[in-house]
Amino acid sequence: MSNDVTKQFFGESKREFDDAVSKRFFSYSLERKNLRKDFELDLLKLLGTMLPEERDGKLDDAIANYKDNASRLFSDEIK
Q: Rounded to two decimals, what is the model's pTM?
């Protein structure tokens, strides 16, 4: 991309845009440990805290929904 394009669409120079993209998308690179560090910390946080909370919330909702519908679902079985 040219400098004009990045200025027009992203409001920054080509170099600034390239630096921002490189930091975000290549931070996991095995060759660049200093860039990989933040990515690994964010990934650990995501896997260790955020996903379990999301999973637990979905499980709680599913169980509550099942309880609410259980009598209707099994009414023929109970008779």
A: 0.39
